TrEMBL record:
Belongs to the KAE1 / TsaD family. It comes from Marmoricola endophyticus. Residues 31-323 form the Gcp-like domain. The gene is tsaD. It comes from the Bacteria. This is tRNA N6-adenosine threonylcarbamoyltransferase. The keyword Transferase applies. GO terms for molecular function: iron ion binding; tRNA N(6)-L-threonylcarbamoyladenine synthase activity. PANTHER family: TRNA N6-ADENOSINE THREONYLCARBAMOYLTRANSFERASE, TRNA N6-ADENOSINE THREONYLCARBAMOYLTRANSFERASE, MITOCHONDRIAL. InterPro entries: ATPase_NBD, Gcp-like_dom, KAE1/TsaD, Peptidase_M22_CS, TsaD. Binds 1 Fe(2+) ion per subunit. It holds the Pfam family TsaD. Keywords: Acyltransferase, Cytoplasm, Iron, Metal-binding, Transferase, tRNA processing. It is found in: Cytoplasm. Required for the formation of a threonylcarbamoyl group on adenosine at position 37 (t(6)A37) in tRNAs that read codons beginning with adenine. Is involved in the transfer of the threonylcarbamoyl moiety of threonylcarbamoyl-AMP (TC-AMP) to the N6 group of A37, together with TsaE and TsaB. TsaD likely plays a direct catalytic role in this reaction.
Length: 354
């Protein structure tokens, strides 16, 4: 963690794009509070996030979570220099709760408001752990909703600072983890359960690696596809069940995880080398995966590329990441958002500040 800079901006960030109500407080690159209220248990029996349930949970959690964050940070909410909020992308109703709360706070306190991109926040959060971002860096963002490779020359998005090099053409990596976990009878969200199960298993099944054939690479060099892999796992498990033999859950988990991590890391390292970039940053919920970290570090090191991964708690959705990006906006003198800031469920990754 970098030392507290007295001139650094004090920013409160609000995140409500999915099922986590996150409120964080940062002082420049220093994390002061990271309060998260999750509605994940309310969605578990549905096997995925139910938007209406998430929105209602955000409404109920918002005020107590803001209070908890300020208490932990040892500040009064009026002390902040700015309010930052996730403006998109995400679930429309869920985003609206955060944006409305942030506007209410900013207007009533007379503070500037920064509506920021959720994906860029997953990149900026690393500054809270490892200090100033190396720019340019190659960001691999892997979450339940996104899998993309970005060239980040300026995390605030100034001068085309965030350029997408590739993305998934179907399922996101986290979505694949969640779907495969479900068919193995593991709870939602599945990523951490597959990660754990895989440690007890061996890589015994050669599952397909999407978009890696020579022909696919011509058009989709840095793109991902996980839906074929998910179907292949489903077919394999079905065949096993039909044969009456038990499904070796740990081996399937390990083999599936290897297929995902192999493609993710291969393409990210290839993209960094192609761009002449020496630092890879992994962000998003799937960055918490233990195999992904190890494999990426191994392959990057072989090419003289460094890898930064924030600790797991900062990889999954939280308010500190939004505050971190907001603080960067203030530090780099970016113009604040208008008080009629929209919530944009399909905000493109290139629009970092709305
Ligand atoms: O970034 P995030 O909290 O929310 C979104 O913006 O989607 O990511 C959630 C995703 C879920 O799909 C979850 O299964 C996955 O991250 N995840 C993991 C692990 N921990 C969370 N996937 C693989 N391994 C993990 N250890
Ligand atoms: Zn996220």
């Amino acid at each position: 963690m970098s030392p507290t800079r007295t001139d650094a901006p004090l920013v409160l960030g609000i995140e409500t794009s999915c099922d986590e109500t996150g409120v964080g407080v940062v002082h420049g690159h220093t994390l002061l509070a990271d309060a998260v209220a999750s509605s994940v248990e309310e969605h578990a029996r549905f096997g995925g996030v139910v938007p209406e349930v998430a929105s209602r949970a955000h409404l109920e959690a918002m005020v107590p979570t803001v209070e908890r964050a300020c208490e932990t940070a040892g500040i009064a909410v009026g002390d902040v220099d700015a309010i930052a909020v996730t403006s998109g992308p995400g679930l429309a109703g869920a985003l609206l709760v955060g944006v409305a709360a942030a506007k209410a706070l900013a207007l009533s306190l007379g503070k500037p408001l920064y509506g920021v991109n959720h994906l860029a926040s997953h990149v900026a959060v690393d500054q809270l752990e490892h200090g100033a971002l190396p720019e340019p860096c190659l960001a691999m963002l892997v979450s339940g909703g996104h899998s993309s490779i970005l060239r980040v020359a300026d995390v605030t998005g100034a001068d085309d600072g965030v350029v997408p090099l590739g993305a998934t053409i179907d399922d996101a990596a986290g979505e694949a983890f969640d779907k495969v976990a479900r068919l193995l009878g593991l709870p939602f969200p599945g990523g951490p359960h597959i990660d754990r199960a895989a440690r007890e298993g061996s890589i015994t099944i050669d599952f397909p690696r999407g978009l890696t054939s020579r022909r696919d690479l011509e058009r989709h060099r840095f793109d991902y596809s996980f839906s074929g892999l998910k179907t292949a796992v489903a077919r394999w498990v079905e065949a096993r069940e039909r044969s009456g033999e038990p499904v070796p859950v740990a081996d399937v988990a390990a083999s599936f995880q290897e297929a995902v991590c192999d493609v993710l890391t291969r393409k990210a390292v290839d993209a960094a080398a192609d761009q002449g970039i020496e630092d890879i940053l992994i962000g998003g919920g799937v960055a918490a995966n233990s195999r992904l970290r190890v494999l990426c570090e191994e392959r990057a090191a072989a090419k003289g590329i460094r890898v930064r991964v924030p600790r797991p708690g900062l990889c999954t959705d939280n308010g500190a990441m939004v505050a971190a990006l907001g603080a960067e906006m203030v530090a780099r003198g970016r113009t604040p958002s208008s008080y009629d800031l929209p919530a944009d469920s399909s905000l493109p990754v290139t629009e970092v500040l709305v």
